[in-house]
Sequence to fold (57 residues):
Amino acid sequence: MAPAPRPHEAWERLATDLDAGALAATTVRPLAEAPDIAPDPLAGRVRGRVVFVVPQD
Fold:
């Protein structure tokens, strides 16, 4: 784990450097849906990014 100032710097950079439009184009889906969604980006049917939430069991 990085010392405390480093993660803080990273979050500050995200707040200032991240394009809000790109963030708005992000789709969040459960990991269980990955096999069903996988063909869509490959076929060009998805714009932006797809983020899969990994269960923390």
Q: What stands out?
A: The two ends are 22 Å apart (CA to CA). The chain has a mean pLDDT of 86. Residues 2 and 8 are 10 Å apart (CA to CA). Residues 24-57 form one domain.
